[in-house]
Amino acid sequence: MSEKQACTTVCGREFPNICGACNPSRCGSGSSGPAPAPQPPTPSNASSCNGNTLQFVNQSNKSVWIYDFPFNSPNGPKQPIGGGPVAAGVLVCVPMTRNHPGMRVYIADRRLRNSIERGVPPDSGSWSVDRNVMFSFFEYFLEESQDRYTINLSYMDEYSFPLTVKFNKVGGYRGAVEDHEYGPKSLSSIKNALARQRDYNWSSLIWPGMNRIVGPLKVWQYNLRAVPSSFRQFNRSLPKDGRQLFSSRSNWDGWHQLMNREPSKTGYVKALHSVTTPDSRGKYGYFCYPIDNRDGEFTWMPIEIKTTVTIYPDNS
To answer: Is the pLDDT of residue 173 over 90?
Structure first.
């Protein structure tokens, strides 16, 4: 899959109902136009963030590097927020880029010199684009003219830092529960939960010797000669074209296409759900597979709702 195809796939699967570059047919006769350049975000020691901003709190045990990056349509090199690392315990306000579907905020344990700072997203499957850097990401899309935005946490691809999301000033919005913390807080708890799933080789999704887990979606796209042999073990257990998970279609097709939450019955999703608590309406609040919108997406939130993303340790 080419980089352009990959971007289009992510755009469609994670923002399927959103007007913009992902789905121009949903925009009516209007046009979102080019995305204006955002104001450079800076670290803050304030207790909260104002305006169209996201609040990130570094509760990991180390300094991290944070980047705001247009994954679906990269438009050049980006520098880290504040120009340097964000210390443990520091709160950072990130102004949202307007009218640009598929924006990602990356959190990394080192500078992403060979990827984002060169204008391309990092990739755990390629040495040339910061494979040896531990990172996770958060996604958003701000529709400023509509006074709304959409966000999601993704545990579909590679991740190292557990991220959670919490909202306040929810008001009458039905897609989230006030002050509920969505998402896992411990990488080791996910690793242990994967090891407890014995029907297939789910524990092979743990990258050996690194604080990293890679979801099936990403592993099935790897060049297996370029990654640790454990991922070949996973593919032998659940080959891309096998039918172990979904009798009606291949593992790959079912993972991408089924909309009836059937992938939630698999060991990977069970493991993640077992270490997190759903809200009072049963929503877990993060994506595990492409059409996981019911559990994963917070769609069209009024701009008054404030979002806090907490970064937990990558080796907890």
So the answer is: yes
Q: Which amino acid is at 257?
A: Q
Question: Following CA atoms 138, 142, 148, 149 in sequence, which dihedral angle do they give, to the nearest 10 degrees?
Answer: -10
Q: Which residues pair with 159 in a beta bridge?
A: 213
Q: How far is residue 30's CA from residue 220's CA, in Å, rounded to a whole number?
A: 38
| Topology annotation, domain 3-184+278-311 | Thaumatin (2.60.110)
Which of 251, 54, 61 shows the shortest CA–CA distance to 152?
A: 54
- pLDDT tens-digit series, residues 26-57: 444 333 344 444 444 444 444 578 889 999 99
Q: How many CB atoms lie within 10 A of CB 247?
A: 7
- pLDDT beyond 70 at 241: yes
Who wins on pLDDT, 18 or 184? 184
Q: What is the mean pLDDT of the chain?
A: 87
- The per-type count for the chain, helices as H runs and strands as E runs, is 7, 12
Query: Of 152, 157, 118, which is closest to residue 136 (Cα–Cα)?
Result: 157
Q: Which of 17-21, 129-133, 144-148, 233-237 has the lowest mean pLDDT?
A: 17-21
Kindly give, in sequence order, each residue whose CB lies less than 8 Å from that of residue 289, ignoring residues fewer than 6 positions away. 156, 215, 216, 217, 255, 256, 263, 264, 269
d(CA 299, CA 121): 24
Angle at 305 between CA 303 and CA 307, to 5 degrees: 110
Is the separation of the CB atoms in 94 and 53 below 8 Å? yes
Integer-rounded Cα radius of gyration of the chain: 19
- Kindly state the tokens that stand for 201: 């080789």
Q: Per-domain residue ranges for the chain?
A: 3-184+278-311, 190-268
Nearest C-alpha neighbor of 156 from the set 217, 239, 104, 203: 217
Residue 23, pLDDT above cutoff 80: no
Backbone φ, ψ for residue 151 (5° rounding): -135, 160
> Which pair of structure tokens corresponds to residue 283?
């929503």
